[in-house]
Amino acid sequence: MPMIKEAEVRWREEYGKALQKTPPRKEEFKNRSGISLQPIYTPLDLEGLDYLEKLGYPGEFPYTRGIYPAMYRGRTWSKRQLVGYEGPEHYNRRQKELLERGQSAINFLPCNTFFRGYDVDQVEKELVGTCGTPVNILEDMDIAFEGIPLREISVSFNDSGPFTGVAMLFALAEARGIPLDRLAGTTSQSDFISHYSGGCNMYFRLSLEGHLRMFIDHVRFCTQNVPGWHPISVVAQHFQDSGATPVQALAFILSSGIFYVDQLVRSGLEVDSFAPRLSFFFAANVALFDEVAKFRAARRMWARIMRERFGAKNPRSLQFRFHVQSQGADLTRQQPLNNISRICLQALASVLGGAQSIHTDAYDEAYQTPTEETARIALMTQSIIEEESGAADVVDPLGGSYYVEKLTDQTEQLAWRYIEKIDGLGGMLEAVKRGYVQREIGLAAYDYQKAVDSGQKVVVGVNKYQIPEQQEFKLKWGKTDQAGVARHIQRVRDHKQNRDQQRVGEALADLRHAASEPSLNLFEATIKAVKSGVSHGEIVGELREIYGYGYPLTQGL
Amino acid sequence: MDYRIRVLLAKIGMDGHDRGARVVAGALREAGMEVIYTGPWQTVEQVTKSALQEDVDVIGISSLSYDHVLVPGLMESLRRQGAGEVLVIVGGIIPDDDVKMLEEAGVARIFHPGSRLEEIAEFIRQAVSGRREKYL
């Protein structure tokens, strides 16, 4: 070390001279979380690093280098592309195409009307199927998954309380003779707190109390009956896409995780009974190193939290398993083909960061739901990284980098400070009720926009390297298949008219009863309702009457 | 006393992504305007009612996923209920094919991704002072 210190002194002098000749490229070098970046990192920055304590081997506490011993040497991440647009038939067609092109796991995206808790016959028809595939009744689900082997493929279904989509999926599996214990998948984005506070709001349908009840019952049901299912998916993507820095996203996802584990334990569940199936959902932005540090810090922090704070014993309870989605907010409408490069960097960050599952946006996702061609390119990006770059051939390839290890440490330290602050406020739920999280995100988003407007933060094609308007890409929005939408609406109407109304009435009464009876399982009652022919909108509507209509905070922020 | 421009920012339809609306709200407040942000999922009726109640000069609609198709209905509702003079601007993801449709419905200006906050504030200042001069 002393010889290195001497060499550093010599280098600093030369560095100073070089910058006198050529002034620094930027006024300050900070990463997206505001961490100051040194010009170089050396062994001096990692002095005293205890490899086994801080990093360890992959698959071993604290899992910094990866949650599994072999990672991508054995099996790569799932190529789990979001698919959802227009009706169930359209979804089915596109999904089969992508499965042939290398997609290895399903990531079903319902439409905005679904997220708002409405059936397709309850809203303006122009709004149906524009950003995802609505599924309102079992028949829709059957069409969507026609010819798709549910027994063999993992299905992430993006849904929120009361999880009617997942209920329909389970009912469909049973109808096809597939026992629930053969299913693998995730109730993706089941985390209601992030929907309430993360500027996305999409899946926030019931009051906070209603969501909490539904969440706990859903986890209980899945823990007992669907052992291969991940009912918990804690999300940071909304925070980050809404403007949160990587440090904030990390702190908020862990605080949310702490909240859910705490609530589930209080409800009487053993931590090791559900924690092995707890999963997380991050965004990845273009700033490669910030993201890799975030992912590695997340693993180390969660392992410590689960062992020390919650006393979890099962090693699988300590593993931070996560899915990554391209950060859409990074993409531009200007010169959209540039987005392919951005998405590649996001995906690379996810691979270098050891993600279990990745969705890469299509380059046109900045302004529409992907076409067949753009969806294919998005998928190929992952395959190129896997097959051509070598990034997947060595576990945690950036481990040991002086820069990455130092940045991982700093990211972790800053995130702990936020977690302590949130603990002080009474935990994540309290923090979002008071608007603390929303204010932090709002300020970060505002600062970012001002930095872009002033040119301090460069976004290629937007505030630098712009091209003339006439040369710009012309946005053409693919029109929804109106005939298909009309068919879907008719199908749902016919179903509601021709079903056994008595059975429906009974199921709704059971649902209402379960909602008011804490010892009953509300998710189980939801599955029964779905099987009895009650529609998605009717289930959400019923629960809204009991639990209240949820709404994000808009004032005082 | 300087007149403080009153702005209602709203999202109509099904989408809830409101980072843009909140950032614009912050910028317009910093520019000295009174801003009310309704939150997401407003109906045309609710926006009309809020605009009248709050006596706003401007309504800014944020639309990212096709909810802009509801804007002509909003324009009609505003006219019918006596708020036809309110300036309406739209921000977000609007396909080129639909820009003309919105302008013909009476939308004063559309702000696409990449618009600068100061640009939006300046447009509102100019447009509102222009209208006030006309009526005072």
Describe this protein's structure:
The complex is a heterodimer of chains A (557) and B (136). Helices cover 49% and strands 7% of the residues of chain A. Chain A is an alpha/beta fold and 557 residues long. In chain A, helix 13 (338-352) crosses helix 14 (372-389). The longest helix of chain A is centred in the last third of the chain and has 24 residues, at 402-425. The model of chain A has no long low-confidence stretch (mean pLDDT 95). Chain B has one domain: 3-Layer(aba) Sandwich (Rossmann fold), CATH 3.40.50. Chain B has 5 helices and 5 strands. Chain B has helices at residues 19-30, 44-54, 71-80, 96-105, 117-135, and strands at residues 6-10, 34-37, 58-63, 87-92, 109-111. A 5-stranded parallel beta sheet of chain B has the order 2-1-3-4-5, with helices on both faces. The model of chain B has no long low-confidence stretch (mean pLDDT 93). The interface between A and B is large, with 44 and 32 residues.
Q: What structural class do the secondary elements of chain A suggest?
A: alpha/beta
The largest chain-to-chain contact, stated as pair and per-chain residue counts, equals: A-B, 44 and 32 residues
Strand proportion of chain B: 15-25%
Radius of gyration of chain B: 14 Å
Uncertain parts of chain B: none
Notable features of this structure?
heterodimer; A: 557 residues; alpha/beta; TIM Barrel; 2 domains; five-stranded parallel beta sheet; 21 helices; globular; B: 136 residues; Rossmann fold; 5 helices; 18% strand
How do the helices and strands line up, and which of them pair or pack?
The complex is a heterodimer of chains A (557) and B (136).
Chain A: H1 2-21, H2 51-55, E1 78-79, E2 82-83, H3 88-100, E3 106-108, H4 112-115, H5 138-144, E4 155-158, H6 164-175, E5 185-188, H7 192-197, H8 208-225, E6 229-230, E7 232-235, H9 237-241, H10 246-266, H11 271-274, E8 278-284, H12 288-309, E9 321-326, H13 338-352, E10 357-359, H14 372-389, H15 402-425, H16 428-433, H17 436-454, H18 482-498, H19 501-516, H20 522-531, H21 536-547
Parallel strand pairs in A: 1-10, 2-3, 3-4, 4-5, 5-6, 7-8, 8-9, 9-10
Helix pairs in contact in A: 3-5, 6-20, 10-12, 10-15, 12-13, 12-15, 13-14, 19-20, 19-21
Chain B: E1 6-10, H1 19-30, E2 34-37, H2 44-54, E3 58-63, H3 71-80, E4 87-92, H4 96-105, E5 109-111, H5 117-135
Parallel strand pairs in B: 1-2, 1-3, 3-4, 4-5
